[in-house]
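Attaching the record inline, Q. Sequence:
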Amino acid sequence: MILSLPIPTTSPLPYTSHLTSPSHPSLPLTTQTQQAILRSALKAYSHAPKAQKSSHLTAIISALSNYIPYLSALSSGLDGKPVNDEEVDIILRQEVETEWKSLLAASDIVTLPRKGGGLGRGKKGRVKLKGIDAEVVMVLTTLATVHRLMAREQLRGIYTSGNAFPEPEARTKSIAGAMRGLLNANGIHVYLSSLCASMTTPTSVKSGGNAGQPPDVSSGVQNGLAELAMAEATLLAVLGDDPYPAVVTQARDKNDKEWMVKAPEIPKVRAHLFARLCIAAGEHAGRAEALFSSSSSERNAMKVDEEIIDYSRNLMRTARAKACRFFGIDEELGGETGKAIAWLRGSRKELGVSIGTNEDGKGWAKGWGKVKNDFKEKREDRRIEKGGEWGVDAGRLEEGRVVEMLDKTWVKMNDTINTQVIPPFEPLLAGMPSGREIHSSTPYVAPGLDEDVLESMRAPPDPDDARALMNDDDSSEDEAPATDGLPGAFPNRTPGASAANEYY
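Structure, as predicted:
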């Protein structure tokens, strides 16, 4: 599973009022134009219905790719660094101030009020940030978030039980694409972690009685996001060769008819290697949780959203539970069925959930408990199919299904054929080995302007473009929330539509 973070919106940033460039006069205005294009793309995503939001991700990536080189050129010019071996003189008229909607701050924090009144209870507002480095951090954090959301879209097909079950090649391709997106996000957060640690311009928020540094510009939080992305990418590397989740999903697929012909084939896996990879993923997720929690307790800092901390904790549990399952598979392949069942019990312990066991640890949910588990599974399936917030449990429910399937199979085999003693699982958990890494972090490298583009910035700016940007409206996304239609009306019916142009 991959954490779903919201894509923020931002306010207009008049670079021409804050900066001027004697050597490249058109650079501030062109940067302001690219920022306006990005703001429009973010607003279009915010206003779109949930089912259509994924179609806007490509436009946001394009807007970010066009904006970042100009923003990097301004930042380098302010720091006195050359751009493509060319000096760019930037004069700071006044401190750059920008407003962004925080991705990570707790939702009960009231920040800057928007037009038309207050924000309303439980809604996140925009935070005011000072310094161009803060703009760089928020823009690149948005880029990492888009990579994460595109990775989620890659995985949607393999978790949807209502559609046709994907072929192995398509499943492998989806997992590989999602893994690349997470590694890109990891590299961006590693870069931002060092950038936030070296920021000299203080960022501040003062509104609604709340003041402090938002978690988005915290070095520890960015490091935590990097650890979280690495944990998810490591688990995806395991998922690509793990046949058991696919077997469970296929068994729950109402359109699958392959069971009429043959039983699903479960190839042998490199269980011990996968177990150590899962342990490494759990270590990354544990560090992410610790970084988020410690950043929330810092002085003059806003709290990180509890849902993000809970997700990191659940991801750590899921990763360790997967490791226990793979150790059990390794023991079962070696003929140690009793020890394998003990590992499954340790897996259930790591998941931190009770799944309808009796006093001696045998049996799974029955009766009303079985009904509740089935209801949770169907509700999760509907979230995936409708594009909702699926995977908020970091895969604990999915891993519980796999452990339940193996437990029933191995217990039945042990009771009828092997009859081996099942040892306690506590010593097995205490003796788990260390993790093994499969990925390495590659820090993000900000793209620069091409030489011909930088040369064109020496021309004077167009006054008409400046006047057009000054008239840009800053309407908030909270004023026109995205809806799928009028309440109680037919889907996609818009306000003001009359019966004369509707066909029934």
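The two ends are 42 Å apart (CA to CA). Residues 369 and 469 are 59 Å apart (CA to CA).

More tomorrow.
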